[in-house]
Amino acid sequence: MSAETPSPYDYDLLVIGSGPAGHHAAIEAAKLGHRVAIIDKSADLGGVCLHTGTIPSKTLREAVLYLSGFRQRSFYGRGYRLKARINIQDLMFRVNEVIKRQYAVIEDQLQRHGVQLIDGHATFTADAHVLHVSSPHSERQFSAANILIASGTRPARRDDIPFAALQVYDTDEFIKITDGEFPKSLIVVGGGVIGMEYASMAAALGSEVTVVEVKDSLLTYVDSEITQSLMYQLRRAGVTFRLGEKVVSVEALDTTPLTTVAHLESGKRLIAEALLYAVGRQPNTDTLNLAAINITTQARGHLTVNESFQTEVPHIYAAGDVVGFPSLASTSMEQGRLAARHMFGEPFENRPDLLPFGIYTIPEISMVGKNETQLTQEKIPYEVGVAQFDEVAKAQITGDQSGLLKIIVHAETLQLLGIHIVGDNASELVHIGQMLMMTGGTIETLAKTVFNYPSLAEAYRVAATNALDKLQRR
To answer: What is the pLDDT of residues 339-395, one digit of tens each?
Structure first.
């Protein structure tokens, strides 16, 4: 549209939701010179990521590691603690400070790029270019050439779980505990990413933790060697796993202290002070009136999009948790940015095969590329190189001697096919290998690279040398 022709719409892009996908889509479109607004409740600027998800949970993890002295226990004994009694206020002080600071950062970014904020709840109308926005103060309508749905998710709940009880939590509520001491015992229902992250934090604080997972294995998309290493470390920290078990009912008892009882399908009873229900999340698509524009959702409420993040209505896009797996903040940011570029005809490159995963358990996990199971199924010849952290001086210095870095390399071309890490700073280390994969490099580069000594990055050279030695012996 030429500069002389006025737009028939109020905005070039309306974004529903200000989480990672919506935030980054809005800024990308604004940088391209377009008129952009985000519709969200102002108190929720930043979405679940900022208020109850990624930012607070990862900040809580750092507070747990610091106050519990977890990283120093390999030197000073398993009973070592920086603070003898750690209460909820100690943990949440750091969380609340980080949320306030990050909120200010997001608010400043949107203001600097001229993105308008519209307070209220958006629903579609019969006109697919028009959104109705309701708030306690007004009822308004706004039109846009393009609309991005980035409304995020909420914790999935079962109607028969007594969430009204003080000692029963979903994953959004768990980060908002404000009083007293951390539960001395905890049942975690669900062995997915969120459940495992909170289970490992609780164990680091000294809680007796039991994880109940209906599947026979945890984190099925993670390399099995990495998962087994994580489970070994968590068992050492006192976590009990009940795999292949289903919770059929939960009782919340008004005792002192408060008690929860989880009844399993196998007949077992689990008793703890608190229960965390962490079985997935529900997309916030059921309140958007999508039927008005003939957009259908999948069985669990997720939206179907193409490789450019378009729904079946071409000018309506969706990104972030509403489109399903992998539902990570980092991937949501990229999806939102790519959607914005596509809707305005800007070139972009989408490499979903090289997006990194970070799972912030204790120890943390990170990976990029394919694992051994996938490569075996695809009949791709490969070799594995491993660096145990107890071979790396920096890991001995920091006290993490149980981690490992595993690279998978094409047996003929020597190109990196996958990187899988468990241990301290895994989510930082993975990017070294990711960059090599993005450029099509080989592990010979890693074997020849001089890394700082001592550093955890040195593990790449150890793993690359290990893989090359194995290939030479073939």
So the answer is: 999 999 998 888 888 999 999 999 999 999 999 999 999 999 999 999 999 999 999
Place of tokens 């000018």: 315
Q: Are 350 and 306 in contact (CB under 8 A)?
A: no
Instruction: Spell out the residues 6+ positions from residue 389 whose beta carbon is closer than 8 angstroms to its own.
Output: 395, 400, 401, 402, 403, 404, 405, 423, 424, 456, 459
* Cα–Cα distance, 38 to 119 (Å, whole number): 8
* Structural domains for the chain: 11-155+282-353 (3.50.50.60), 168-279 (3.50.50.60), 363-472 (3.30.390.30)
Q: Is the pTM of this model over 0.90?
A: yes
CA distance 34 to 413: 45
3-state SS, 1-32, equals: CCCCCCCCCCEEEEEECCCHHHHHHHHHHHHC
Q: Which of 231, 9, 33 minimizes the C-alpha distance to 128?
A: 9
**Residue 103, H or E segment:** helix 88-112
User: 389, exposed or middle or buried, with CB in 10 Å at 0-12, 13-18, 19+?
Assistant: buried
| HSE value, Cβ hemisphere, 13 Å, CA-based, for 65 | 19
Is residue 113 exposed (0-12), middle (13-18) or buried (19+ Cβ within 10 Å)? middle
The rounded Cα 10 to chain-centroid distance in angstroms is 34
Residue 219: what residue type?
A: L
List 271's β-bridge partners, or say none: 261
